[in-house]
Write a structure and sequence with these properties.
Structural class: alpha+beta
Number of domains: 3
Largest sheet: 4 strands, mixed
CATH class of the largest domain: Mainly Beta
Strand order of the largest sheet: 3-4-1-7
Number of helices: 3
Distance between the termini: 112 Å
Helix content: 25-40%
Shape: elongated
Length: 245
């Protein structure tokens, strides 16, 4: 009996829910009573035990049902986030790529896009970021919002020109040697001109997006000035300067 009681105690201490613990206690009492008596209980005693067990179990089942219902309602609750995308002139743009920091694909609606985000899928901090871009025009934008009580929020994104890339490369002469001390600039931004080093390399703010073409102007005494369109981004450009005649 001592070993049996020890096992019951070991099981009991692992139960955290008070209702489950109560039901467990009823089962333990029933087990001990049957062990001690060594015979079947009379109908009245058995009915009393069953009634007591139900008293303890019903709140547990009710609590479980409430929790399951709460989780189901949470998953059924959906944020319908309407997204409007405007161009630099703040007029609506249709040909736009739109995505968000949460799960879910955007769907087209009148005047924009809509993200359907179940509450169970929203970020833990409730913050949502929606991005938009028109790659062919090098326009990008984003908007941040807090998902709260409003299940049908609207967010507006104004696209701006992406000017984050640099343009880099090397200036060489007709023989392929780097041209030292050549003055290099992006046309329109003369005050940002740089001078090439020993190897003829340069790097400048492109004031453009990666992949966008920018006009580079190069000059040095003894050489004919060069103007060439080069792609902004990580791909280096090579510009050839010819000796002046």
């Amino acid at each position: 009996m001592i070993m049996t009681m020890t096992k019951w105690i070991e099981i009991a201490v692992r139960i955290s829910n008070q209702w489950n613990l109560a039901a467990f206690g009823v089962a333990a009492i029933l087990f001990i009573v049957l062990k001690v008596q060594g015979r079947k209980m009379n109908p009245f005693g058995r009915s009393a035990i069953i009634a007591l067990a139900l008293v303890c179990l019903v709140p547990t089942l009710a609590s479980t049902y409430v929790e399951i219902t709460r989780i189901a309602d949470r998953n059924r609750t959906i944020y319908h986030v309407r997204t409007i995308v405007l161009g630099p002139t703040e007029t609506p743009i249709e040909d736009t790529k739109v995505w968000s920091s949460a799960s879910g694909e955007p769907k087209r609606i009148t005047g924009g896009w809509q993200f359907d985000i179940p509450e169970g899928s929203k970020p833990l901090n409730g913050k949502l970021t929606i991005y938009a871009s028109v790659e062919s025009a090098f326009l990008t934008g984003k908007a941040e919002m807090q998902l709260g009580e409003d299940r049908n929020p609207t967010v507006t994104i104004v696209l701006r020109a992406d000017t984050s890339a640099n343009v880099r490369g090397i200036i060489v002469d007709g023989s392929g040697n780097g041209v030292f001390a050549a003055r290099v600039l992006v046309v329109g931004y003369e005050n940002e001109a740089v001078v090439t080093g020993t190897g003829g390399s340069f790097s400048l703010p492109a004031h453009a997006a990666s992949g966008q073409m920018v006009r580079i102007h190069v000059q040095k005494n003894g050489y004919a000035a060069a103007n060439e369109d080069c792609p902004a981004g990580d791909s280096p450009a090579t510009i050839v300067m010819n000796k002046a005649r």
